Amino acid sequence: MYACRFGRLKYVVLMESRIKLVLSVAMLLGTVAAASADVVNVSPAGDDVRGDGSAVRPFASLQRALDYAAALPKNDTLFIRVGGGEYRLYDPVRITPDNSGTAAAPLVIEGAGMDATVFRGSVTFGGFQRYDDKVWRVRVPRECRGGFEQIYVGGERRFRAQLPDRGGFLEMERVDEFVIDSSATNRTGKNWAVLKVTLDGGTASRLGRMPRSEWNDAIFNFYHKWDVTRLRLQYLDAAQGEAYFVEEGIMQWNPIDVKSRLVVENCSAALDSAGEWYFDRSGGWLYYIPVDGENPETLEVSVPVVEKFLEITGDEASGRRAGHVILRDMSFREAGYGTPAFGNAAAQAAAPIEAAVMADYAEGVVLERCEVAHTGLGGVWFRRACRNSALRQCHLHDLGANGVKIGEPDMPASDMVTHHITVDNSIIQHGGYVFPCAVGVVIFHASDNNVTHNDIADFRYSGVSVGWVWGYSDSPAKRNHIDYNRIHHLGWGELSDMGGVYTLGRSEGTTVNHNVIHHIYSRYYGGWGLYTDEGSTGITLRDNLVYACKSAGFHQHYGEGNLICNNIFACQIRAQLEATRQEEHLSFTFTNNIIYFDRGDLAGVNWKGANMVSDHNCYWDTRSTDLSFQGVSLAEWRAAGKDVHSVVADPGFADAAHFDFRLKNRRVARKIGFEPFDTTQAGVYGSEAWRERARLDPSLEEAFDRLVEQTEALGISQW
Q1: Distance CA 575, CA 684 (A)
Q2: Residue 294's CB: how many other CB atoms inside 10 A?
Q3: pLDDT single digits (tens) 74-100
Q4: Peptide bond connecting 106 to the previous residue in cis, omega within 30 degrees of 0
Q5: Cα–Cα distance for residue pair 432/495, rounded to 1 Å
Q6: Is residue 277 classed as helix, strand or coil in its secondary structure?
Q7: Alpha-carbon distances, residue 533 vs 177, 196, 477 (angstroms)
Q8: CA distance linking residue 425 with residue 694, whole number of Å
Q9: Strand spans (E) along 334-403
Q10: Kind and range of the H or E element at 628?
Q11: Tens digits of per-residue pLDDT, 691-703?
Q12: Which residue has the higher pLDDT, 181 or 433?
């Protein structure tokens, strides 16, 4: 149960009893169908006890309307019309087989518009007073005094006080790990260890000002390669600069070490910057440093009281699925997350972290023109045994974890594989605020899914991740289509081993086509546009435009039979193309691509050693016609049977310096059999207002560019 709960439990129990009584009486009197046979109404001015769902006497809550609908005959489409206004959620809305629709008679829940019908999982309060010349404070409502980890002000996330300030990282002088249970060493097992971290003197001194009562509420976020481990402080020896933690689920292949970086969150001693806050659990005070323009007399803060907005759950035991429900034209905003007692073990792509909208054993679930925003968890997860469902023209943003997840990270039985989920024309941006290793869209053990025409941006890890088997063992992740997406401004130099599109395992029939991928920047290695990782097999990557990526436009770790053709790889930073493992079988075919660059190397890590077919490509280095494939000249490269029919020529882009890669003429393209494609088709479509909503704030893009420029100037090693 979420720590911050509403304080009207007795009232709710009483209300439920009254509702049951009214329903019983109504059933006896034969008046349960007072509403129109095909329409049930909900309004902020409605009444869950005295209402009957009619336009004149609407219900006050969606859950009450769903419970009412469960008793109606399922002969035709049933509409639940949720009027404009604001609805507070103190528990998730639950859709079960009993109150679902059917294939012949679906349930349609429709609001008055994405910005008109709004469900909020929070309580809102004001009453701030000036505590000192910098800090304000307010006594939080009693129902929130158990603790909370997110707050929102005016529809914007505010961050807990952290050391260093947001955007910065601490370095560690030494890390010692003492494993106390080494019985589980595989990916699904758990180990236990004590972690001792030696901090520099300044950090230790500042943390030493924390009273001991705050220790266990402080969260230490360890950034290590592709993961973030979140641990609660157990003991601090400030004089020695040593902090101690209990770690669950340690991974021997990606330990926390001195190359890892650290952020300490929820530390009262770090409350020093505008927009930061700290909650004093003992006194019930919320301390806050205002941003410019805020007034203590009018400032209101929203504190989440739920973690999830919506749960759609079937009954596996009876074989009854939930679903055949369409939710459209509404918003779900402001939910939270509470860190467990021992923190969060490292998990790639924040795999186990749930979402604010969950579906299990469900089918025919459609979210259309909906918003999910301001969460502690992820956005939407079609998890276990879901099928034939969709997310269309939805706006998911300001998320604690992932945008959309499909399937399960644990291998399901063959008849429980999630399949045929569509994520189309949606904006999925600004995620990973609690779990930085989160991904825009993740497909785990799931097949036949379509991720198309989305705008995915501003995550700290990968944009789209497909497949969940490392190596060549069988994988159910087949025939997934990642097409026509715009994927950009990822990484922010925080994590490594990442990509715009990241694939794993045997994925026959999977396509990564017609995407525009750009501005991908990792901490160390990684930062690739297209990344076929361990065991990626049978994937076609075609007609993609990839530019401004840190490590390379394309990288294959190892895999088999992948086709990389008719792509434009342009203006990457350190290398254009990379590979890792040399294998006996044909790893990939690389043909009909245009490779254009004005900085860095043509070929990076082990490109010359990869077992590939490479031909009919165009290479152009604006600085020289003397190409080098990792020290191998073009003549030597061709003598080895590579790129025999490729050309070294300017492809004739309209304005590559400003990322305009339209071809002014097609003479060179025709030589290599390159077929021009329309990059404007990638990303969201529809009204200008919808496309405008997908555009990042220019200041955010400028901040990304500054970070890249500053980091490159430091020359941080790839490894």
Answers
A1: 30
A2: 16
A3: 999 999 999 999 999 999 999 999 999
A4: no
A5: 12
A6: strand
A7: 29, 32, 14
A8: 10
A9: 355-360, 362-373, 378-382, 387-392, 395-397
A10: strand 628-629
A11: 999 999 999 999 9
A12: 433
